[in-house]
Specification:
With 417 residues, the protein is α/β, with parallel strands linked by helices. 41% of the residues lie in helices and 18% in strands. It has two domains: 4-223 and 385-410, Aldehyde Dehydrogenase, Chain A, domain 1; 228-372, 3-Layer(aba) Sandwich (Aldehyde Dehydrogenase, Chain A, domain 2), CATH 3.40.309.10. A seven-stranded parallel beta sheet has the order 10-9-11-8-7-12-13, sandwiched between helices. A four-stranded parallel beta sheet has the order 5-4-3-6. Strands 1-2-16 form a three-stranded antiparallel beta sheet, with no helix packed on it.
């Protein structure tokens, strides 16, 4: 029987150990984890193959199965990501600011671990390694709960992680996994405020709503996006089409993958047929409003249905809407965006600046693919999540975002008058 109270208690104790580790010791454990992951690749892939086969029997979509799959190349990439985390500066113990007050008191804000991080995620087993490495580097313990579709894969990865921790003389409770798929445990997990300091959900809209509504623990939300690319009238067509292709096709199942293209009316008659021809040749389904559909021959653009503008596709699908200009594009984004990743493609810097100022997403792009909203791409190393909220952390959550701080006040016999 899964005892979450016991897991929480053990995580709290492990967190106290991790908080005092030197950077060298944490990096040694990370390098051990990377080596162990490579050494156990066959075992991990064997367990993952069972999950994939079961998922295929259940009729899961190909995009879902792709998110679930671990192959030799992906495991090697995960190991390299862990090694990369070991090379990053350790934020723990650094001074955010320091000053001497007029009365002679020395005041410092020093970064410290948050404590115990609880993460609930769904179909991506790579998240298990990402979170373990980031939490270890920042001295946080972690309790993980993945989806039932990835149970064997995640347990295999947990064994790899805990073997590495044990080999370095660290508590295996530093990274724990809830291996019971009973959904009732999620609500119990969300109420472990005595032991867990922060909850991070990585999944769909319903998971985020469940965590926000049920948790007694602070929740960092994100990882769900309705992603827009606005093609301004000054945009270079080949560049714009290339960026749209990358934003959609580089990894369609990602939260920063394209969902809606907004096209300025003044260029739509020429641009829409070109982008439809290019993306259609790659077997991408496209939906369009009446104006966009009138600009192409045949039924290559399906009609937009109710709710489509508010759908995170996570697949080879996107919508096209013709807008009168940047103001209508921004208004559409304001109505339908989940403040994740939105882009403008333009050669008009005034419009670029207007878009930057008025689109309130955690990452805004000018003439660049939305797929760059990623911890590794931003130079943060692996990320634990992409936060779309405004308090504590926003955007890719790397090492710094997994720390808090304490005030340190040093005096010389000072008393308050």
């Amino acid at each position: 029987m899964t005892n979450l109270q016991e897991m929480g208690k053990n995580a709290k104790a492990a967190g106290r150990v991790l908080a005092t580790l030197s950077t060298d010791k944490k990096n040694a454990a990370l390098l051990r984890m990377a080596a162990r992951l490579e050494a156990c690749a066959a075992y991990v892939m064997e367990q993952n193959a069972l999950d994939v086969a079961q998922g295929r029997e259940k009729g899961l979509s190909e995009s879902f199965l792709d998110r679930l799959t671990l192959n030799e190349k992906r495991i090697a990439a995960l190991a390299n990501d862990v090694r990369n985390v070991a090379t990053l500066p350790d934020p723990v113990g650094s001074a955010m600011d320091s000053r001497v007050l007029p009365n002679g008191l020395q005041l410092t804000r020093r970064r410290i671990p948050i404590g115990v991080i609880g993460v609930i995620y769904e179909s991506r087993p790579n998240v298990t390694i990402d979170i373990a490495s980031l939490c270890l580097k920042t001295g946080n313990a972690a309790i993980l709960r993945g989806g039932k579709e990835t149970l064997r894969s995640n347990v295999a990865l947990l064994n790899v992680i805990q073997d590495a921790l044990k080999a370095e003389g660290l508590p295996t409770a530093a990274v724990q996994y809830i291996d019971n798929p009973d959904r009732a445990l999620v609500r119990e997990f969300l109420r472990l405020d005595k032991y867990i300091d922060m909850i991070i959900p990585r999944g769909g809209f319903r998971l985020h709503e469940l965590c926000k509504n049920e948790s007694n623990i602070p929740v960092v939300t994100g990882g769900v996006g309705i992603v827009h690319v606005f093609v301004d009238e000054s945009a270079d067509f080949p560049t714009a089409i290339n960026i749209i292709e990358n934003s959609k096709m580089q990894k369609p199942s990602a939260c920063n993958a394209l969902d809606t293209v907004l096209v300025h009316r003044n260029i739509a008659g020429a641009f829409v047929p070109q982008v439809v021809a290019k993306m259609g040749a790659m077997n991408v389904r496209m939906k369009g409003d009446a104006a966009a559909r009138s600009m192409v021959v045949g039924e290559v653009l399906e009609p937009i249905e109710e709710g489509d503008w508010d759908t995170e596709w996570l697949d080879y699908i996107f919508g096209i809407k013709v807008v009168d200009g940047i103001d209508e594009a921004i208004a559409h984004i304001d109505q339908h965006s989940l403040e994740h990743s939105d882009a403008i493609l333009t050669n008009n810097w005034a419009n670029a600046q207007k878009f930057i100022d008025e689109v309130n997403s955690c990452a805004v792009f000018v003439n660049a693919s939305t797929r760059f909203n990623d911890g590794a791409q931003f130079g943060l190393g692996a990320e634990v999540a992409i936060s779309t909220q405004k308090l504590h952390a926003r955007g890719p959550m790397g090492l710094t975002e997994l720390t808090t701080y304490k005030w340190i006040c040093v005096g010389d016999g000072h008393v308050r008058p």
